Amino acid sequence: MKLPGITLFLFTCCFIIGTGSAQAQFGDESPVPYFRYALSAGGGPAMISGDLQGRLLGGGIFVRGDYFLHHGISVSIEAQEGMLRSGDQGDGISPYPVTLLFFTGLASVRFHPLMFIQNDHDRRIMYRKSYLQKAINTAYIGAGLGGMFNFTRSTAVETYTNGSRFGYVYHADIGLDFPLSKMAPYLMDTFMWYINVNGQLNMAADQGMDGFPDERDSYSMFTVGIKLKL
């Protein structure tokens, strides 16, 4: 008559032990996400779009820090510095060569869709995948906002605030990370290096990025950098 009670007791013990073992096993493997932080830096060409025509290539550099809220979702802050160049104002009469020096700070969110939809098993066996699959898995899109300070080096152009200006910008980007480090099945206490390739667009919240108020301005950057995930 006591057999059902003993059976229930043994079943409960087995369930508790099994649950504990599963949690211990998960604790020995990568948490979600693989990494909590990422640091990156790099640079590349930049170009302005808006009132200024005859655009010439400029360039910029960046440093960025990311914190992963979840496997596939990160928040970040980024600092940029660079130069934007133009050939004329675009009125068809007088040439206005302009060089804009800019300093931009951004706060943004990045979403890695393939990482986000992975289950625990897929994450733990990613080290078995091909190099192309590992790279594509890191693809992301991002968006955010920030502030931009710039000033001109052209004596022929009168801009706001005696040649300098601060304004707010909206930010969007898309990119991919190419692994440099060899992956392993257990990544909790390690770090990995990547080559980051990123395309970015920063759009002025008003019309005054280049000093001319007629059109809404923006600048784009294509960058290649080094990223450390840890």
Describe the structure.
Residues 1-24 form the signal peptide. Keywords: Signal. This is Outer membrane protein beta-barrel domain-containing protein. This protein has helices at residues 3-28, 113-116, 120-124, 131-136, 160-163, and strands spanning 37-49, 53-70, 73-88, 98-111, 140-152, 164-179, 192-204, 218-229. By secondary structure, the protein is α+β, with helices and mostly antiparallel strands. The protein has an eight-stranded antiparallel β-barrel. Residues 15-29 have low confidence and may be disordered. It has a single domain, classed as Porin (Beta Barrel), CATH 2.40.160. Strand 2 and strand 3 (73-88) form a beta hairpin. It is built from five helices and eight strands.
Indicate the CATH architecture.
Answer: Beta Barrel
Q: What sequence of helices (H) and strands (E) makes up the elements?
A: HEEEEHHHEHEEE
Question: Strand count, sense and closure of the main sheet?
Answer: 8 strands, antiparallel, barrel
How far apart are the termini?
58 Å
Mean pLDDT: 79
Query: How many DSSP helices?
Result: 5
The third-level CATH topology is Porin
Strand content: over 45%
Helical residue percent?
A: 10-25%
Q: Looking across the biggest beta sheet, what order are the strands in?
A: 1-2-3-4-5-6-7-8
> pLDDT under 50 segments (min length 5)?
15-29
